[in-house]
Amino acid sequence: MRRTLWKWHGWLGLTAALPLFIIALSGSLLVFKNELDGLLMPAVISSKGGPALDMNTLMHDAERQLNGYELLGWQPGEPGQNTLLYLSKMGSYVWQKTYIDPSTGLVTAPVKPVDHYLTDWLLSFHYTFVSGAVGIAVAGVTALLLLALSISGFILHRRFWKTFFTLRWGKSLRLFLSDGHKMLGIIGAPVFLILGFTGAWWNLDEFSHEIETHDDSAYIITQRYYNDKLDFDAILARAKTAIPGFVTTYIRLPDKSYPGIHLFGHPADAGPLRGSAGSIISFDDQTGALTGVMNAASLGALYQFKDSFKPLHFGTFGGLTTRVLWCLIGFFPCLMALSGFWMWRKRVKR
Length: 350
What we know:
This protein is α+β, with helices and mostly antiparallel strands. It has helices at about 1-30, 35-40, 40-45, 55-65, 120-130, 130-155, 175-210, 230-240, 300-305, 310-315, 320-350, and strands at about 70-75, 85-90, 95-100, 110-115, 245-250, 260-265, 280-285, 290-295. The chain has a domain at about 1-35 and about 120-215 and about 315-350. It is built from eleven helices and eight strands. Helix 1 packs antiparallel against helix 5. It is elongated, with a radius of gyration of 24 Å.
């Protein structure tokens, strides 16, 4: 039984090696996506500083500077960063993006495809290999393989404490790599299980939606779908009373496919495993009247379980400490793929 499991572990590792290397390397970098954006394109991302303008002023400034486009999404940035705007050109339904400085109301970049910037392309590459539904499926299966490798590796080394600190220096490269491979696997196993499970769930769920037939031509933007005279500051204030201390992290503006104005976010006192956009407060797009409140804290166990995926997958639940750990441990599969492949080549040659 153990010999068979060794073989399966090896073949699963070889199958997953290349896509897992790519996913692990890109994912490790994406833990610090916001920081990388600030370093790579400060003129686009970094705010001039100072107090933010009110929401109504910012909306009017964005609409004036982006004539010919319709706003679809509004995502406030981290402190010191600009707000991300999603929009589509009139006469089309192709999502694009730009940024606006919340302290000046100035748009800081030309309108670009959503995966134009390096880290956005890297994010797309991370979970789709830039290959649409096929890439999403491959990434999902790779996440399942990581899950299987973590479980089988733990079974094979279930008495890991006996040789956990053993690194046979000076014996042979094969023995050193074998010890290092095992050590990295033992250290990273809990994180690998989290990353494999959440990644597989997201991608396979996304794949099921991708293969459904849908015609975006039915949603071509032909007009503004919300009332120009809406008071967005009043809407934001109403959200804070609908869910006490509500923090808005994304505003979805209406189009033909998605009527209403929806504020995604979380209560200010949300726990570390609460997603940043798991609660939703909805408003009528013509009158601004409150139409629905969905507080993640009061929903079922399955919803709350899924709501914890993002902080668990990106390691944000423990602040900078867990993000650094996730970045480092997320890179382990790259090293393990290389060491595993090298050991397999040596066995084949013998």
